[in-house]
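Suppose you are handed a protein chain with no further information: no name, no annotation, nothing but its sequence. What can you learn? This example shows the usual starting point.
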Amino acid sequence: MIKKEIIVEKDRKIVNILQDFGFSFADVSKMLRKKDVKVDGKPTKENVMVTAGTKVTFFYTPDMLQKKYDILFENEDAYIIYKRVGIEVEGEKGLEKILPNAIAVHRLDRNTEGVMVFAKNTECAKKLITAFKNHAIHKFYIAEIVGNFDVKNKTYKGFLTKDSENALVKISPQKVKGSVEIETKVNTIKAGVQSSLVEVELVTGKTHQIRAHLAYLGHPIIGDGKYGKNEINKKFQQNHQKLACFRLKFDFVDVNGLNFAEFVKKPKWYIF
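A reasonable first move is to predict its three-dimensional structure. Written in C-alpha cells, the prediction is:
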C-alpha cells in the first residue's frame, strides 16, 4: 500500500478531493469503507466535508490510480492527447506541467474529458492558436443529456454573457450588454425517454458554451453540477458531466503531421 498525505487547500468533500488525484468514485468509496482515509489522523468511513488546512491521509495501491491522459499522436511539434475527467489543463497539477514542453492552445473544463492538441514550441503554438481563430480546427463533442431531444444537424444561436462573480455563463435569445453571439450545432445520435445521446459541434467556442446552451434548451448534460439539477444527477448516479470532446479535425494548419488530420477517441461511457 502507498501512503499519501496532503493539506487541503479549500473546503471540499473527501470524494472530490481524492477524485482530483485520479481515483474513480468506486475506488474512493472502497477506500472509505476500508477506513483507508484519515482526516487529521482519524479514520473516516463517510464522505465528510473537509475544511481548508486539514491534513488528509489515504492509502492506495498503484493500480487504483487512473491515467491522467492517453497520447494519441506525438512528434517534434505537437501532442494529441485524450484528457481524463478531473484533470486541469493549466496550473501546478495541470497537463501543461505534466507533459514535457507542452503549451496549451485551447481548453477543456476540468470535468470534461476528451481529445486535445498541445504545442511543443512557440512557433507551433502560434500556428495552432491562429488555426483555432480561423476555424481551421473543428471540435466535436458527445454528450448525454436529460430528456428526449431528437434533432438532425440543427444549429442553435444565442447570446452568451459571462457572470464572473458566480463563475458561470448565461444564455439569452437577444443581444444584451456584454454578450457575444454563439452558435452550437446539435445532431441526435440516439433519443430516449429519460435521456438522449447527442453529437455537438462548436461553431463558436466560448466558455461553458455547450453546457450552458444545452441547459438553456431544456436538456442539461447529465452529471453537470453547475448547469444541471442535483436531483436529476442523483437519479442517474452521476457526479461528473457526461460530456467529451471525442474528435478533432484539422484543415491545413501548417503544422507537420496535423495538416488535414483527424483524431477520434470515444469515452468509455459511450454505448451505441
